[in-house]
Amino acid sequence: MSAAIYIVEDEPALADLMADYVRAAGFVPTVFGDGALALAAIRADTPALVVLDLMLPGLDGLSLCRAVREQSEVPVIMVTARVEEIDRLLGLELGADDYLCKPFSPRELVARIQAILRRARAQAPAPRPEQILAIDAASRRALVRDAPLDLTPSEFDLLAALARRPGQVFSRAQLLELACQDKLDIHDRAIDSHIKNLRRKIDALAPGLDPIASVYGVGYRFELQSA
User: Fold this and answer.
1) Are 33 and 91 in the same domain?
2) Omega into 103 within 30° of 0, i.e. cis?
3) Among the ranges 96-105, 106-115, 135-144, which has the highest mean pLDDT value?
4) Cα separation of 8 and 4, whole Å?
5) Is the dihedral of CA 176, 203, 140, 145 positive or negative?
6) Residues 55, 65: Cα–Cα separation, whole Å
């Protein structure tokens, strides 16, 4: 999906020109001529980046940038005809990611948008394991990408025991001791059957996700992938 770019500019001709270049670069621009309308739109649906004019009717660019920064880290490029150093510093102190002084080349604007978005993608944190699989021992619930896993008591105990120590290899006997202490009729080969069921249920909610690795001749370990 193409990245949404909000252009907040009250000069219609300039706003249309910027939108044309942004669109030609593969982004989806939306133009706002009023700061208050732009703020409401940003709060309702945060875009990938905001191009923000300093001088706007109603809510000015600096006030809008300050309000946005109270709730979002969306990248902001500020645009202005005022070149005084105090405005430049104030704009950046409020959280603007870049600054362009009028007149400027629309190609330069597009280049800066692309550079900022590349940096944002490079700095984005990798998915954490708990975002993929979450285990709540207190409620005895397990979620895969926010969808509940329907587990038997033994299956939940096995998954919880493995997940508590990711990367550690457990023998079947150890898993019996950790997860099946009160189930005297369970033998170590039953662990294989429980693991098979766990894999099947996880795959049904997240195809291709296999957090339980087999270690030949030893047992199993938990190594949740991020994909």
Assistant:
1) yes
2) yes
3) 106-115
4) 13
5) positive
6) 12
Strand ranges, E, within 95-180: 98-101, 133-136, 141-144, 147-148, 169-171
pLDDT over 70 at 19, yes or no:
yes
User: Residue 106 is which amino acid?
Assistant: P
Contact (CB, 8 A) for 42 and 1: no
What is the chain's Cα-based Rg?
A: 26
- Look up the domain containing 80 and give its range: 4-123
Three-state DSSP class for 33? coil
Task: Give the CATH number for residue 112.
Answer: 3.40.50.2300
Domain count, the chain: 2
Helix (H) or strand (E) holding 7: strand 4-8
Q: Is the pLDDT of residue 92 over 50?
A: yes
89, 123, 157: which is the final residue of a domain? 123
